Amino acid sequence: MKRTKTSAKKNTQEEGSSQREKQRPKKWDKSDTTHYNNMKKVAVPATQLACPETMTILGIKSDIEGLFQNMGLGQLCNLNEPTYPELVRQFIASAYVSHPNDSHQEGFLAFVVQKVYFE
């Protein structure tokens, strides 16, 4: 029996769908706990869009600040946003990314944060 491209693609998508369900449980599991415990040693710094020291060294700080002002984004490049280290660690420890096919044009992301499964 000869497969058409459509049915082959559909089968690949179905296999990818069932495969990702097997690989990312919908609950926090033992593997997540292991990764999370390793993440406890990792510092989670404040989020910053641009590094002022680096921009100054490169001589582009005023240019970048002017660009952001002209775009109506104000001082966005100079803001330090708060981070939530506990949530960051949970996300990184449990994140699962898959690509149903080799093109990497489409993908799937699943993770567990505060005992809630997201995909």
Show the helix and strand layout.
Layout: H1 5-23, H2 30-39, E1 47-48, H3 52-58, H4 61-70, E2 80-81, H5 85-94, E3 96-98, E4 108-113, E5 116-118
Antiparallel strand pairs: 1-2, 3-4, 4-5
Describe the structure in your own words.
With 119 residues, the protein is α+β, with helices and mostly antiparallel strands. Helices cover 47% and strands 13% of the residues. The protein has helices at residues 5-23, 30-39, 52-58, 61-70, 85-94; strands at residues 47-48, 80-81, 96-98, 108-113, 116-118. A 3-stranded antiparallel sheet has the order 3-4-5. It has a two-stranded antiparallel ribbon with strand order 1-2. The longest helix is centred in the first third of the chain and has 19 residues, at 5-23. The radius of gyration is 21 Å and the shape is elongated. The chain starts with a helix and ends with a strand. The relative contact order is 0.17. Residues 1-36 are annotated as: Disordered. This is Arabidopsis retrotransposon Orf1 C-terminal domain-containing protein.
Give the helix tally.
5
Radius of gyration (CA) equals 21 Å
Query: What's the story with the biggest beta sheet?
Result: 3 strands, antiparallel
Number of strands: 5
